[in-house]
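JOB MANIFEST
job_type = single_chain_structure
chain_count = 1
residues = 266
[input]
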Amino acid sequence: MKHYGLIGFPLSHSFSKKYFTEKFEREHITDAKYDLYSMEHISELPALLHKHPDLCGLNVTIPHKLNVLKYLDWIEHDARSAGAVNCIRISAESPVMAAFSGEVGVKGHDFRLEGYNTDIYGFEASLKPLLKPQHDRALVLGDGGAARAVKCVLDNMGIEFQCVTRRSMPGNLLFGELKPHHIKDHLLIINTTPLGTYPNVDDCPPIPYEAITDRHLLYDLIYNPEQTLFLKKGAERGAHTKNGYEMLVLQAEKSWEIWNSKEKHP
């Protein structure tokens, strides 16, 4: 039996657990299981791996997407650029091969951890079909861990962006500084904050919604509820809207592909 799972804290609700359990049933995959591993401190990762030697892959959620990097033997290029990992492939590594490559597994252990960011793939694949020529400048609401994949994709696609945050950060606008002209100058607006997530469905990012037009595209990484207040306010002004559900599905399938890939990395 191959085991996969999700590490993070807290894990009160998990898209991944439900998705992979249903996937295994739907596709008649009988030799795989997906579990939740609540982990308050990333320092607990090596002990988890030794306790569950049949683990073949992990998804990583908050608050560990950044701090997990120091435990990895190899990090894919975009994940390194984003500075965040949400998918780990676990493989056995013989001491002979580790010595030959000049690498040793985590803290000298006999497994090898490869890090990826499948959020990057999921966001890009779900965003691309919606883009029109006017969507060449973006506002990114929030600048936390979730924004890292978004910014990496925008960089890769050559889309200029401006981050908007509650607290002052170098180069970022504050929500309180946001004016209608900022909205008019950025026809792609992406919410990476948790504002509006169930059960707080009456919350939304504080932006000048009156400046949104039918030329705007509003993307919310939140998928629960299906239509956040952010998206609802945009739709009322004629904007095209997209929630984060497809992104989650795409990143989950990309994780499955990575975990089952036979590709070797140096």
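[summary]
Residues 245-259 form the longest helix (15 residues).
Residues 57 and 256 are 8 Å apart (CA to CA).
exit_status = 0
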